[in-house]
Hints:
mainly alpha
Amino acid sequence: MNKLQRKRSTLLSSVTRLTETLNNADxxxxxxxxxxxxxxxxxxxxxxxxxxxxxxDEDYERDTVDCEEYxxxxxxxxxxxxxxxxxxxxxxxxxxxxx
Length: 99
C-alpha cells in the first residue's frame, strides 16, 4: 500500500506541475504538454484504482471524492488549454490570410 501511495504521490506531482504549466500558457502550441498530461492522468487513474481496491469503505469514499475533485480541476485545465490553442490557431490563420 505504501509503495502504491508513493507512486501516486509522484504522479500527482507530475500532474500538478503539468497543470500549472498549462494554466500559465498563452495557448501557443501546448499540444505536447496536453498530451503528456492526459497520459499521466491515465496512469494516475490506474494507480488510484489499485489503491482504492485496498481501502476500507470509509477511506475509499473520502479518497474517491478527493480524486474526483482533483481530476475535475485537471480536466478543466486541459479544456481551457485546448480552447486557447484553437483561438491562437485561428488568429494565426487570420493573420496569414491578411498578409
